[in-house]
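User: I'm curious whether this sequence folds into something compact or stays loose and floppy. Could you predict its structure so I can see for myself?
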Amino acid sequence: MKDLYACVLAVFALALAPILHGSEAPTVNKAAEGETQLPSADAEKALGDLAKRFKDNPLIKAHLITESEDLMLGTRKDEGELLLDRSGRVLQKFSKPKVKMRLLNGSQLHEYAASRKLDMVKDFSKAPSALKLLQAAVTVDVKGLAELFDISVFSKGTDLRLVFLPKAGGKNPLAYQYIQSRIGAKDLFFNEIEYRPDSGKIVERYSDIKAVDKFKDDDFAMPTGVQQQVDFVTEDAK
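Assistant: Here's the prediction. I'll summarize afterward.
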């Protein structure tokens, strides 16, 4: 099952690490200078308000810079844009340094690299539970992620920092030391999300975040005339 979720989320820069055994809560789950950790009731209200803000703005467009640090591959930086339709469509379209696309549309997850002219597809139509988790992850569904993570909320002025720690003893396939995200009082999406697997890290920074009235289907279209490789995922994949 670990490999199943790895293939799901690595494509969207949620690169999975080996399951962590006995890891202590990292220091990131403490208030930084100038921050205040919200008590449970206030944190729950803040998360509820955030979920409503996301629900009221289901279509989002933003500029995206992703920085990945890997012990073997070094540091990589990709730049492009995010198109987010919370009904289940998410596109990361990178133009620098190379053209590539990562798309979730319905039950299919695509990864396209222009240099290879290959559209690699993971089809989750036979894996509804995995698809539900995938959609929660890539649309940043806080309620859905709360099933797998304990969430701490820190405030600094009107800005919030959310820290996601895997629930103790749970069978969480998203095996990170932590995920943390930052959002301003009026932001329609997180301006920064950091993923920390067992080694290295991935940071996504979003700017020029705007609500969109409507997307065209062509906005989420993959290139035509390329080779497509489809892999059907099942719930009992090992």
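Summary: The chain is about 15% helix and 40% strand. The two ends are 5 Å apart (CA to CA).
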